[in-house]
Design brief:
Number of helices: 2
Distance between the termini: 73 Å
Strand content: over 45%
Helix content: under 10%
Largest sheet: 5 strands, antiparallel
Number of domains: 2
Bound molecules: calcium ion
Order of helices and strands: EEEEEEEEEEEHHE
Length: 234
């Protein structure tokens, strides 16, 4: 009896689609036998720097699959083949946000036909962020660190009658949901309302550009008028 481990490494492809206030980023990782590795999925849809949209939630969906096949080169005996896949998902430098773990096994009578094929295709995970502001930096870009290890193990009796190969695939889909933001330039602290806090900011910025609301490059009485006219909730 002998055990042969096999790891699968994955490489990255990416596609992005946009529709209305929902942006979908899709991609896949696939590869053949090799050492376990880590990959980065970059979230590039946090483009709210213009202040026109508010990110409501982010939905991350992953599907992992493993294909493994062993072929005997001799006859006689029994072949036990099992395959397992582990994948961890990290966002930025944070803790694990999702894990997948699945396995399958089969027994082959090494007489006729001496082939074993395994498919892992049901390992799915979804993570929904309802407070996307926690995904700091939520304005800008971020990455998901994907660590995926696929392991094929073959036990053969008698030994030295096996040839094998394997491949793996992880597909992912990131959905960003936005709402338009009503412009509120007098809300200098971004609190969602124009109030005494914004007034204090404006007064402390007097004769500088920091409290300029009318675009003349400095802060003065005109800007105070604009602020007072916008007093209240945005
Ligand atoms: Ca405010
Ligand atoms: Ca001004």
């Amino acid at each position: 009896m002998r055990t042969r481990p096999l790891a699968v490494t994955l490489s990255l492809t990416l596609a992005v689609a946009s529709s209305g206030d929902t942006i979908v980023q899709e991609g896949g990782l696939s590869g053949s036998a090799g050492p376990p590795t880590e990959h980065l999925i970059e979230l590039d849809r946090f483009d709210t720097l213009d202040g026109t949209r508010q990110l409501n939630f982010v939905l991350l969906e992953f599907t992992t699959a493993l294909f493994a096949e062993s072929v005997t080169t001799g006859k006689g005996g029994i072949v036990e083949a099992s395959a397992a896949l582990w994948a961890d998902y990290f966002l930025f430098d944070g803790p694990i946000i999702a894990e997948t773990d699945t396995s399958i096994s089969t027994t082959v009578d090494n007489s006729e036909p001496p082939v074993a094929t395994l498919y892992l295709d049901t390992d799915e995970v979804a993570v929904e962020y309802t407070s996307p502001r926690d995904l700091a930096p939520w304005i800008g870009t971020g990455t998901i660190l994907l660590s995926a290890t696929a392991q094929l193990t073959v036990e053969e009796s008698p030994p030295d009658v096996i040839e094998w190969f394997a491949g793996g695939e992880v597909t992912y889909r990131v959905t960003y949901d936005f709402d338009p933001v009503v412009p509120c330039p007098a809300d200098l602290d971004g609190s969602g309302a124009v109030d005494s806090a914004d007034l204090a900011i404006l007064l402390s910025a007097w004769k500088t550009a920091d409290g300029d609301l009318d675009g003349d490059g400095t802060t003065g009485a005109e800007d105070l008028t604009v602020l007072l006219a916008a007093w209240g909730d945005c």
